[in-house]
Each structure stands twice: as C-alpha cells, then as structure tokens.
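User: Please predict the structure of the protein below. I'd like the answer in structure-token form so I can feed it into my own downstream comparison script.

Assistant: Understood. Taking the following sequence of 323 residues as input:
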Amino acid sequence: MTLLKEIKSPVSKELEQFNAYFKQSLRSEVYLLNLITNYVIRNKGKQMRPLLVFLSAKLTGSINDSTYDAATLIELMHTATLIHDDVVDDASRRRGLLTLHKIWKNKIAVLIGDYLLSRGLLLAVKNKEYDLLEIVSSAVKEMSEGELLQIEKSKRMDINEVVYFDIIRKKTAALLASCAAAGAKSAGADTETVLKLKSFGENLGIAFQIKDDILDYNGTKTGKNIGNDIKEKKITLPLLFSLKQAEEKEKRKIIRLLRQKNKTDNTIHEIFDFVDKYKGIAYATKRMNEFIDKATAQIEDFKHSPYHKNLLDFVDFVVKRSK
C-alpha cells in the first residue's frame, strides 16, 4: 500500500477534490437514491481509474475541469457496469461488502446502475465533453461485447488464444485504455498523443487481466475465492496454454471437469495440478510481461516528465499486486 500512496502523491490533492466532485455528481432529491449511492461511495476501491486519468493528464499537460469530468464520467460508467455485473453473476459481495442487489434486490440494483449511466451522460452533455463521452462510451460498448463473447465461448468451450485476448482487450483493457486516453484528451493533448496513451492503457489492461487470471490460481481476490474462474467455467490463459500442451485424452478429462456444475475442492485442485504440470502460470507470466513492455514503450517519449516514473510505478503495482 505504501507504493500506491507514493504513486498517488503528485495528484493526492486532486484525488481528494475528485471524491467530493464524484459525490456531488450522485446527489439526488430522492432519499432512497441518496441512501444507496452513499453505500456505493463507501464501497469504492483504490481509485485506480481516477488515478490513471489524473496521471495521464499530468504526463501530457495539466489537470483542469475537463480532467475532473473525465474521471467522474469513467467512474460513473464503471460503477454502473459493476452493479449490473453483480446482478448478472448473482455475486454476494464486492470488496468485502454485500452487493446492492443482495440488500435492495435486483430491480433497485438495476435501476441504480441505470441512474449512474444517466448521470454520466448528463454530465458530459452539460459540460459539452463530447470527445470524452465518445471515448468512454466506446469503452462501455466494448466491455459489454467482451462479457457476452466470454459467456458465449464459456458455453461452447471452444476458446483459443486469439479469442481470449479479444475478450480481455474488450472486457478489461478497454476501460483502462479509456482512462489514459481521456486523461490525455482532457489536458489538451493532440490526437497522436491521445492514441499513444490509449495504447498504453490497453496494454496495461491486458497485463492487468492476465495477472488477475494468475491470481485465481495462486493468489487471493477480495470478496472472491481462489478458483472462481474455474467455478464459472472460464478458460483463462494459464489453463488455455496447459490444454494446448496436453494429449487429447487428458485434455478431454479436464474439459469434462470444467463443465461440472457443482465442483468440489478436489476437482478444482485437480485442475490446479494440471496447470502446474504444464507450467501454465509461467507462460501466462511471460505473456503478461510482454504486454507490460508494450505499455511502457508507449510512454517512453515522456521520460523527461516528472510524472513518467509515477506511471511506471503504477504499472509495477498492477503486476506485483497480491489481490
């Protein structure tokens, strides 16, 4: 956590101001809405997305009102998608707290998600932030496509590496790409610079998701148990590589175990052992590092900036986190 505090230090005041700005953007005259959105604010995480927006703005220019709009728009859209995801997945907890639909039921949770989406749209229109709206809306579209593609492929069990990377580029990387691009755009960066920062965020997002996949085998996740991907029949990179190495008979056995509805701990550990046997974690780690190298290469031109190191430390934090 010390590293994250150091990364935030150049924009710590801006992040504090953002919290107030974000809270104001949620305010309503409806008591129930305020009650629930206050709960949402209590459940916010490490501020990774606003942090990336602000650091990208500092790297390419300076923070201004548009930067606060960018961070708020992204956080509103992202929070809305998380609430909807929790309903779809019937998730009980997020970051250790009960999910909205477990407290207020599905109907209200879905409506709260819709409310957050509408607040984001209204914010962008009110302040004429049409470029930012396009960046963030494109990310939300890709996130939805990625989720649906993953559901489709999980049912068919016919995923390959090309499909896997397409899923995570859309599902996870698109959002971090929008953070970096929106931060640069808000600071007045030209099109070429915005695209560089977008590529930085996308490659970082892919590495982030691969790290998440690795943690499902040998780490911890807040609010989730190890092996959650296996329980949800998701074929992620460590397993995907291992299946490619195995003989057909062994491969069919693992796919059969993965298809089981109610998996026992023994079933999950058998799949863990299979991935360990074929060094799936080592392969995934190698691929993760490749995308980290691609990400850092995109901001090499900004190494003269005092904020370049903070972004490199941000990248380091992503790949070294334990949850």
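That's the full token string. The chain has one domain: 2-320.
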